């Protein structure tokens, strides 16, 4: 339903759309293990939701339902299984909404009056049944003895592993969620409740003909397949190629286009495998500029005596060039062609701006790319290769990749990227203007082709920018340089303004930066975000200067603090255990630090000693599961799974005289305006009386919760624990979040709570 954009990241500091890109690739990595196909609706994960009503308020229900219907009609499943029920036991509103939409789509996909515009491309489809895979998670058990059940712990001798082992390998690809799993072996039952359609009795596929007998003209094909299987020789699979090639003629005559298309691809791949055919297509470089020609090399080898002739090799935007080259057993042949870098490889769901809760696919509608809808990533440029195998011409396609050898990791495949001619990355995500001072805005430019032109800042009301533009010329591919503009606020400046940089390269305007995400478990991700930043007029006072930061699961808080003038130093274990911490005005632990850093259990006494001697320790939120120590603070409290998901929820000040609300900035109700996604998560409970809880808040219909922020003096210092989502608010440039967070870092002398 979503790409998981609104969750937390245990690997790095990517959030929102960037996290969604990573999780998309993690899902595809999981699919490479289990062999399933992956689809997505255009719904956006906007963060934790406590019910389907809120979820469907942010999602455009009809459009998201249409995406589900499209997938059902295109994929044509016989059985649909929901992970969660419509009744809320799944906890997350997105989970419940997914079940509600699945139930509606089950009927809508078969109704020609629903989404009739889709019927130009697909047909209506009625699945046999809709099931809910019940579960037992924690204290919630929805299974029952009378439910249909199957043993999923079955051992597969062909694979040499059980499905519990395969499932763990698949699930362990979801690394940003911390879903690494142990391989399960032996009997394991899953339970199912029928929601719609016929209930299964003996098998999930009861009543479904899953053989060629379901297809008009398929009985003859089924009989021929039985003969091919009977005659198959594992030592000489090439002996089956002629029979498989002959079978393609029968499959080509199947009247049902769905089965004809699907099974033809399967059959062609099987022929190539049995013949010992291998072929791939590579670009010479990982990234090209828009408009460049991309030279592509295709390598082919046959490792049997099956007669194979390469008839033609061509890019997908050029006419086929006749080759008529006969392949020799064990000898690699290479063929060259060229394609045009005609389109920037921006993820299709990020091409257009989008509101909360929904991605836009207007770009696909405008360009007529219906086949791209609901696919997990952009369709790649490919090479078309016509091979004659055993006197049968068969067309194969191979996506164009970039391949290289890493000395430590071996052969690496990465996607080929098409970039704007010149990208412009603004150095800071936000610029805080605390008074009327001038600030330099540095922009890093990079050329991906030969380029000349200029860069400018779009005019903005209330701000003066100098110079008007900065020219460049003679830039070659790979060149990097910087341009610096000075930005001066005027008297009528708005509180928040978006600054946009525009590059004119070779006569055309572009306003894109470049962002690369690299993790070993997924392919590299490259996108081109808007070349823009925020100018924030903020009345902000700062006390103290030097901050120590202990890394957690990953966040961008340090960048935000540097922007307002703090000197931030990443603390090492040696510095914590053996160094003098008294020089730090405050020490901060990153988000989930007490979940992901086991050494904090050893370092904690030193941190509390720092507090006792006059320091100021600020601990950001942690998950209640997997804490490395329960003694996070000098006095007891418990981290609990409670949160306030409404970013606009009313905040009540219950302790207006508390220093964290008054020094050095006076925090008011206005400072809680404009927050994004949520107020906070994993609040605290069972709070010791030595702490003060100056804020209360709650989602609609729930009691007030005072666990978002607790403050307590200890010895000569102060301890702060906050579950407020500063890791989201500060990078987003929320003014009030800056003012409150600075107060948490600023301990007045001789004025403890």
Write a concise synopsis of the structure shown.
This protein has 753 residues and is of the alpha+beta class.
Produce the secondary structure layout.
Layout: H1 17-34, H2 52-58, H3 61-75, E1 79-82, H4 93-108, E2 129-134, E3 136-137, E4 140-141, E5 148-151, E6 155-156, E7 161-162, H5 163-171, E8 189-197, H6 218-231, H7 241-252, H8 257-275, E9 277-283, E10 287-289, E11 293-302, E12 308-315, E13 321-326, E14 333-340, H9 362-367, E15 382-389, E16 392-406, E17 410-415, E18 417-419, E19 422-426, E20 430-433, E21 439-447, E22 451-457, E23 463-466, E24 469-475, E25 480-489, E26 496-505, E27 508-510, E28 515-517, E29 525-527, E30 532-537, E31 546-550, H10 557-563, E32 567-570, H11 573-578, E33 586-589, H12 593-596, H13 600-612, E34 616-619, E35 638-639, E36 651-653, E37 684-685, E38 695-697, E39 709-714, E40 717-722, H14 726-729, H15 735-745
Parallel strand pairs: 1-2, 9-16, 10-18, 20-30, 31-32, 31-33, 33-34, 34-40
Antiparallel strand pairs: 2-8, 3-4, 5-8, 6-7, 9-11, 11-14, 12-13, 12-15, 15-16, 16-17, 19-21, 21-25, 22-24, 22-26, 23-25, 26-27, 26-30, 28-29, 35-37, 36-38, 39-40
């Amino acid at each position: 339903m979503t790409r998981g954009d609104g969750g937390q990241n245990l690997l790095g500091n990517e959030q929102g759309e960037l996290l969604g890109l990573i999780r998309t690739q993690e899902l595809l990595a999981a699919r490479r293990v289990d062999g399933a196909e992956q689809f997505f609706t255009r719904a956006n994960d906007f963060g934790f939701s406590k019910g389907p009503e809120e979820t469907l308020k942010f999602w455009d229900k009809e459009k998201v339902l249409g995406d589900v219907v499209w997938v059902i009609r295109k994929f044509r499943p016989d059985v649909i299984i929901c992970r969660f029920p419509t009744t809320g036991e799944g906890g997350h509103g997105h989970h419940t909404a997914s079940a509600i939409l699945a139930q509606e789509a089950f009927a809508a996909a078969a109704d020609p009056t629903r989404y009739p515009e889709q019927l130009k491309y697909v047909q209506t489809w009625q699945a046999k049944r809709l099931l809910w895979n019940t579960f037992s998670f924690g204290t919630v058990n929805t299974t029952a003895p009378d439910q249909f059940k199957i043993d999923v712990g079955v051992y597969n001798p062909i694979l040499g592993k059980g499905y519990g082992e395969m499932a763990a390998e698949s699930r362990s690809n979801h690394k940003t969620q911390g879903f690494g799993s142990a391989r399960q072996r032996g009997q394991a039952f899953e339970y199912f409740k029928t929601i719609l359609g016929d209930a299964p009795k003996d098998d999930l596929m009861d009543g479904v003909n899953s053989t060629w007998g379901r297809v008009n003209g398929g009985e003859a094909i089924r009989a021929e397949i039985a003969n091919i299987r009977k005659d198959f020789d594992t030592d000489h699979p090439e002996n089956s190629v002629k029979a498989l090639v002959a079978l393609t003629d029968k499959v080509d005559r199947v009247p049902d286009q769905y089965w004809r298309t699907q099974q033809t691809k399967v059959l062609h791949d099987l022929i190539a495998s049995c013949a010992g055919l291998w072929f791939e297509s590579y670009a010479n470089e990982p990234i090209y500029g828009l408009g460049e020609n991309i030279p592509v090399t295709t390598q082919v080898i046959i490792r049997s005596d099956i007669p194979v002739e390469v008839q033609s090799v061509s890019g997908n935007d050029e006419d086929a060039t006749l080759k008529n080259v006969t392949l020799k057993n064990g000898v690699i042949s290479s063929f060259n062609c060229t394609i045009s870098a005609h389109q920037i490889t921006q993820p299709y769901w990020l091409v257009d701006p989008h509101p909360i809760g929904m991605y836009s696919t207007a770009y696909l509608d405008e360009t007529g790319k219906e086949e791209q809808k609901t696919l997990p990533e952009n369709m790649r440029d490919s090479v078309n290769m016509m091979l004659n195998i055993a006197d049968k011409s068969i067309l194969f396609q191979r996506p164009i990749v970039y391949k290289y050898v890493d000395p430590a990791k071996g052969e690496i495949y990465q996607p080929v990227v098409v970039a704007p001619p010149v990208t412009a990355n603004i150095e800071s995500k936000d610029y805080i203007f605390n008074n009327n001072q001038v600030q330099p805005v540095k922009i890093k430019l990079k050329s991906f082709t030969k380029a000349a032109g200029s860069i400018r800042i779009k005019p903005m009301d209330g701000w003066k920018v100098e110079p008007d533009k900065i020219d460049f010329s003679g830039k070659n591919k790979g060149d990097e340089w910087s341009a610096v503009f000075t930005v001066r606020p005027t008297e009528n400046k708005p509180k928040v303004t978006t600054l946009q940089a525009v590059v004119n390269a070779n006569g055309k305007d572009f306003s894109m930066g470049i962002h690369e995400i690299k993790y070993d478990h997924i392919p590299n991700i490259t996108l081109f975000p808007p070349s823009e930043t925020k100018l924030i007029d903020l009345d902000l006072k700062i006390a103290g200067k030097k901050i120590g930061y202990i890394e957690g699961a990953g966040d961008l808080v340090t960048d935000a603090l540097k922007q307002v003038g703090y000197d931030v130093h990443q603390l090492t274990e040696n510095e914590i255990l053996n160094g003098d911490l008294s020089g730090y005005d405050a020490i901060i632990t990153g988000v989930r630090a007490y979940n992901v850093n086991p050494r904090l259990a050893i370092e904690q006494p030193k941190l509390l000693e720092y507090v006792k001697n006059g320091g100021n320790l600020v601990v950001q939120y942690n998950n209640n599961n997997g804490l490395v120590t329960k003694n996070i603070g000098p006095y007891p409290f418990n981290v609990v799974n409670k949160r306030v998901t409404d970013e606009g929820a009313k905040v009540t000040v219950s302790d207006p005289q508390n220093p964290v609300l008054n020094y050095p900035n006076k925090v008011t109700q206005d400072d809680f305006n404009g927050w994004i996604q949520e107020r906070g998560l994993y609040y605290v409970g069972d709070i010791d009386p030595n702490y003060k809880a100056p804020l209360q808040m709650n989602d609609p219909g729930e009691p007030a919760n005072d666990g978002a922020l607790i403050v307590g003096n200890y010895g000569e210092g102060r301890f702060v624990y906050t579950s407020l989502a500063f890791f989201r608010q500060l990078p987003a440039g929320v003014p009030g979040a800056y003012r409150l967070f600075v107060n948490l870092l600023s301990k007045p002398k001789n004025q403890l709570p």
